[in-house]
Specification:
With about 120 residues, the protein is an alpha+beta fold. The protein is built from 3 helices and 5 strands; from the N terminus they run ββαββαβα. The strands form 2 sheets. The chain has a 3-stranded antiparallel sheet. Keywords: Ligase, Metal-binding, Nucleus, Transferase, Ubl conjugation pathway, Zinc, Zinc-finger.
């Protein structure tokens, strides 16, 4: 099952005559969308050291995916991408790269969250 969130557009009357309306994305939905992207599909927790799979493009917590790869390698079995719905069925350590952009986005959101407390 895939959940798709659509932003709700709210139209507000403008105080001045220059604009008839201002469009604003509902903040609750925007926050929900960004937080979902920061959650590791393995640990179900916010990622601290995200790595991206070069083959399918999904990101995971580095320690979690490496542990799965190591365990399955000992069992002489392939690792399927843990992201629900992904068909990539042979994840290798060499497929993983540090996801610096995602790390910066997570750090930025956390910094903003702390500054609003």
């Amino acid at each position: 099952m895939k959940i798709v969130l659509f932003p709700i557009i709210v139209r507000l009357k403008s105080d001045n005559n220059d604009n008839d309306a201002i469009e604003q994305i509902d903040e609750d939905i925007a926050v929900t969308q960004s937080q979902v992207n920061f959650i590791c599909p393995i640990t179900q927790m916010e990622m601290k050291k995200p790595v991206r799979n070069k083959v399918c493009g999904h990101s995971y917590e580095q320690d979690a995916i490496l542990k799965i790869i190591q365990t399955r390698k000992q069992q002489k079995k392939k690792v399927r991408c843990p992201k629900i719905g992904c068909s990539h069925d042979d994840v290798k350590e060499s497929d993983l790269v540090q996801d610096e952009a995602l790390k910066r986005a997570i750090d930025s959101q956390n910094k903003q969250s702390w500054s609003t407390l």
